[in-house]
Amino acid sequence: MAADPTPYHQLETRFARLGALGDAAGFLHWDAATMMPDGGADSRADQLATLSAIEHEMTVDPRVAEWIAAAEARVDDLDAWQKANLREIARLHAHASAVPAHLVEALSRACSSCEMTWRTARPASDFAAVAPKLKIVLDLTREMAQAKAEALGVTPYDALLDQYEPGGRADSIDMLFADLESVLPNLLGEVLEAQGRRPPPVRPKGPFPIETQKAVAARFMKTLGFDFTHGRLDVSAHPFCGGSSDDLRLTTRYEEDDFAQAFMGVLHETGHALYEQGLPAEWRKQPVGKARGMSVHESQSLLTEMLACRSRPFAIYAAPVLREAFGGAGQAWEAENLYRLNTLVEPGFIRVDADEVTYPAHVILRYRLERDLIAGRLEIDDLPEAWNEGMQRLLGLTVPDDRRGVLQDIHWYDGAFGYFPTYTLGAMTAAQLFLSACETEPRIPECLAVGDFRPLLGWLRQNVHRHGSSLSTRELLVKATGEPLSAKAFLTHLRGRYLED
Amino acid sequence: MAADPTPYHQLETRFARLGALGDAAGFLHWDAATMMPDGGADSRADQLATLSAIEHEMTVDPRVAEWIAAAEARVDDLDAWQKANLREIARLHAHASAVPAHLVEALSRACSSCEMTWRTARPASDFAAVAPKLKIVLDLTREMAQAKAEALGVTPYDALLDQYEPGGRADSIDMLFADLESVLPNLLGEVLEAQGRRPPPVRPKGPFPIETQKAVAARFMKTLGFDFTHGRLDVSAHPFCGGSSDDLRLTTRYEEDDFAQAFMGVLHETGHALYEQGLPAEWRKQPVGKARGMSVHESQSLLTEMLACRSRPFAIYAAPVLREAFGGAGQAWEAENLYRLNTLVEPGFIRVDADEVTYPAHVILRYRLERDLIAGRLEIDDLPEAWNEGMQRLLGLTVPDDRRGVLQDIHWYDGAFGYFPTYTLGAMTAAQLFLSACETEPRIPECLAVGDFRPLLGWLRQNVHRHGSSLSTRELLVKATGEPLSAKAFLTHLRGRYLED
Q: Name one GO biological process term (chains A, B) (predicted).
């Protein structure tokens, strides 16, 4: 007769089920963004809400708490991965059980409603239209943050941050962002000056047929190492990388008169996908086999897009391939010109269009505002003014309207407070990882110049992907680069690319 | 304070959740058939198995039995739809709780494995390769049939039949099929003789560009009444109608040198879809709001395809539209020729290619064989011989190999015993409904000739679709046509179309 399963194995069984439900929801989200006709929206919302409710119930089930306690009491019976898995399970359980079901549901409904209103308020530049709903979202988020803070023993903002960035704390972010802030304004001035001394790069002229853009995107995805037996590329209004790690669904959107936006977007999402495809196969169904957190995830997309694919070596490889695919000719298609286009620095109002020199300012602004919102030091009615003041101070720009200001990002309207800092943590992590990769494998740049991504991908597989969530973000970075996260490598990268180059 | 929910309302909440989970699974099945890369198969199987296991647990939950008993004790508090819903809920609960979870799981695994083997055994015509796995499937199915038979108080075969055709019983099917068998062999001879007296119809010559075929298919779907804000048309190896009733996912497959197969396939699936789109909106989340059963479902696809779209009036409408779309010319594109092509009778080995005169023989053969298999009167090793004898007796054909014999259909290899008779019950139901529709709305044929499906669809909405599962199959048919199902209308239709016409 088979022995009874141990409490730890009960947890594995439960969380494998939860993982499968999460994957199922991932495909339903992908379908909603890419395939679903409008008339399916209401019942899709029902399906997703049902899956969430079941996931929540299965996670907060009192037996899970008992199994965790029993497994922790006999933690020496577990191997290193099992121990790490138990830690992740306990973390997920703590987050879920901190919040009463009625609050989860109320917040979910408030976010759906607010996001829906935001979709029309943004193009109309009408903050007042969405403010009442955003207030409800903020009130409920504060309540949730407080509940999680008490359960986790951290501040309310850190409790929100921890959802996206396990172990992330505002104190460390403050120091890292202060380091950036002490350097970036002057650096930006120097970069713009250096850039002004060169003739401006020329944009290749379209039209760029969408079918050709799709074929080019797929070709580069394969070159980067994306496995199309485990994923697809489709079209959605907002590009993302979804699905499950065995079946990644990338999306982008195409413009006939500009191939670069979709192209760079696909390379960015491919970075996310390569991370997922490199997660440890034998642990994928367990929490420890999932991606570490949003800053590591974003580091993989930014390393791929910013460090690798906006580099000069990549332009040398890509220029003739793109020229031939689009039947282009002339100076606009030369590698050096494409490189200059891909590294053009232009302060602007919109975060998602920002270059890597000005991007941190966008994130720092949002980070400070959302900390004040959660702490009760700032209220929704004062938010647009605070936003505009921040843009003036950080980038010297006068925001002309809320569409190009406080209304531009979906995050807060969808309840995602604590997410923004992971973008810039990811950028710093990317630079630090890329520097270490190039120190270990000095031929990475020359390989990029001939379209050979294997040395880079090999290093990432070995030093990042295969660890899943078995290490903390900090442990992972120390192990891969020899030191914890700092702004050093990121600033070195910016100086090297934008001043000396 | 809100009153506690009644037991009946507890059931509604539970079954709304189950409905949403079932819909979620429907989209994951659709995705697997249309979009999923091969590498996603294993984790998709996990997702679907997890959803099934949760659905099973939520259905057999002892509280559900208590709620059912309590609701039945106070059934007079319920309105007619609620009463019908309670009946459906009790039926679903009885089916699910008759079978122990380990048997459900073992059968599910055996079916997956057997079906996988069948996929290669069929093209290789290698019955021996799949026979051991089919034996396991049959053994477990017999066990399940026995368990359900005891719980439902019916025979084991009827218990299987009841899964697809609620209330269906082999005794009635025997009588209906005997009526067909006493007429069809002679009728087939007369039809072939009559057909032989006419010059053979001419097939339009391709190629028929796939993009044009898609556009034509979508155009006719709209003409028939399909609402594209609540559905899509895509490509899969085996055509089906999936998704949920708010978001129907139809599929077909296209051949460049023959448009008729995909075209007729789409019209067939559109019939299924129109039924789903016509189900009562306010009850869709409950069991009573679902389609009645497989014979009614198949009646809707066959009525649309066979009765409406293979009729002479439809050919009059469709011929010029098709001719123009494909740039065709000449006799092959004349309405009378297309009509003759669409009603060509040719006895053959393959059920899915069969015309409506010979189709019942295919079904009767499978029905008799599967009854014997379930009753233990026939074993797997003797199945190919029994199949071939049956084809000789029923259609006078000598089966050349198992690929064109016992291996042709997925059903048994996937564990679907008790399904086959619903095809021919559906054909008879379709004829009986169409006859009544034309009696009530005599302009239906002339409307079809100008592409106006509204009178027909209106009648179906009123007399079939809006009832959901609130009536039994028999009640529905008596209410719509004045009498229970018989072979009369079907045989009248065949004689009218194939002998007098």
A: proteolysis
Report d(CA A315, CA A322) in Å as an integer.
Answer: 10
**Side chain identity, residue B376:** G
Nearest Cβ partner of B37 from A36, A47, A232?
A232
- List, for residues B451-488, the tens digit of each pLDDT value: 999 999 999 999 999 999 999 999 999 999 999 999 99
Partner-chain residue, chosen from B35, B36, B247, that has the shortest CB–CB distance to A43: B247
Res. A148: pLDDT tops 70: yes
Q: What is the spatial distance between Cα A185 and Cα A188, in angstroms, rounded to a whole number?
A: 5
Residue written as token pair 């391939």: A321
Report the candidate in A451, A435, A447, A442 with the shortest Cα–Cα distance to residue A489.
Answer: A435
Outline where DSSP puts E strands in B207-322: 231-235, 241-244, 247-252
Task: Report the C-alpha gap between A223 and B435 in whole angstroms.
Answer: 61
Cα dihedral B119→B124→B127→B133 (10° resolution): -30
Output the six-digit token pair for A138. Answer: 């903020």
Cα separation of A493 and A433, whole Å? 11
Give the torsion sign (CA, B317, B320, B323, B325). negative
Q: A235 in contact with B at a CB cutoff of 8 Å? A: no
Question: In chain B, what residues touch A51 (CB-CB under 8 Å)?
Answer: 20-21, 24
CA–CA dist B113, A481 (Å, integer): 46
Residue of A23, A47, A246 with shortest CB distance to B23: A47
If you count them, how many residues does chain A have? 501
Question: DSSP code of A330?
Answer: S
Tokens 């199945």 map to which residue? B383
Strand positions, DSSP E, B236-361: 241-244, 247-252
Alpha-carbon Rg for chain A, nearest whole angstrom, is 23
Q: What is the ipTM of this complex?
A: 0.93
Residue-wise pLDDT tens digits, A445-465 = 999 999 999 999 999 999 999
Cβ burial of B296 (10 Å; 0-12, 13-18, 19+) is buried
Q: Out of A20, A53, A231, whose CB is closest to B37?
A: A231
Question: Residue A4 is encoded by which pair of tokens?
Answer: 């009874």
- Of the residues A46, A222, A232, the best mutation for testing chain B's interface (the one with the most B CB atoms within 10 Å of its CB) is A46
Query: Distance from CA of residue B43 to its chain's centroid?
Result: 28
Q: What is the mean pLDDT of residues A288-315?
A: 98
CB contact B103 to A (< 8 Å): no
The verdict on a CB contact (< 8 Å) between B39 and A244 is: no
Question: Could you confirm whether B269 is annotated as catalytic?
Answer: yes
- B27: distance to nearest CA of chain A, Å? 8
Chain A (37-76) residues lying within 8 Å, Cβ to Cβ, of chain B: 37-40, 42-44, 46-47, 49-51, 53-54
pLDDT of amino acid B63: 98
For residue B129, give both structure tokens. 């390769």
Q: Report d(CA A421, CA A172) in Å as an integer.
A: 11
β-pair type (A241-244, A231-235): unpaired
Catalytic residue among B12, B115, B165, B269: B269
Interchain CB distance below 8 Å, A27 and B38? no
The whole-angstrom distance between B234's CA and the closest CA on chain A is 10
Q: Which of these is catalytic: A55, A88, A165, A269?
A: A269
Integer Cα distance of B451 and A104 in angstroms: 51
Tell me the chain B residues in contact with residue A218 when contact means C-beta distances shorter than 8 Å: none
H helices present in B38-196, as ranges: 41-60, 62-73, 80-98, 101-124, 127-152, 156-164, 170-196
Closest A-chain CA to B43: A246
Which of helix, strand or coil describes residue A56?
helix
Do the Cβ atoms of B247 and A50 come within 8 Å?
no
Measured between alpha carbons, how far is A334 from A159 in angstroms, rounded to an integer?
Answer: 49
Q: How far is A209 from chain B (nearest CA, A)?
A: 18
